[in-house]
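Supplementary Methods. Inverse-folding protocol.

Structures were first reduced to a discrete structure-token string of length 135. This string, shown here, constituted the complete conditioning input.
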């Protein structure tokens, strides 16, 4: 109940029988609110304990997982790139050698139309060369 304009509003309090007392507990403090829980990237409050996580393209550094380091995607299978893989913080990009352009899938390389025409003139053939090239 509470008082508004000198009148009581709300339900009258009720007595709870002995043995049915409800104990209210307080939530543990959220460690992520202070210095991000000591986490470099993500902090999740797990019942009062900070649980750290890393952004995409990063992995935990060391056992505590509080610090994160970049994953070099280019080290494994050239990042899936047909020609050139360039590692960047949190990701990577694919690029192609001269005379080629990156395909819409951002990994394959396609022969540029000018280079394609020059290649056809050298071959003196009408066979259609492959457009998507992998190495």
């Amino acid at each position: 109940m509470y008082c508004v304009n000198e009148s009581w509003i709300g339900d009258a309090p009720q007595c709870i029988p002995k043995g049915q007392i409800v104990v209210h507990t307080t939530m543990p403090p959220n460690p992520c609110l202070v210095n991000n829980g000591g986490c470099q990237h993500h902090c999740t409050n797990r019942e009062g304990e900070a649980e750290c996580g890393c952004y995409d393209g990063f992995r935990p550094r060391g056992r505590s997982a509080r610090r994160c380091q970049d994953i070099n995607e280019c080290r494994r299978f050239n990042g899936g790139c047909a020609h050139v893989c360039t590692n960047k913080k949190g990701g990577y990009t694919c690029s192609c050698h001269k005379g080629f352009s990156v395909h819409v899938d951002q990994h394959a390389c396609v022969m540029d139309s000018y280079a394609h025409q020059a290649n056809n003139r050298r071959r003196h053939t009408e066979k259609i060369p492959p457009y998507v090239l992998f190495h």
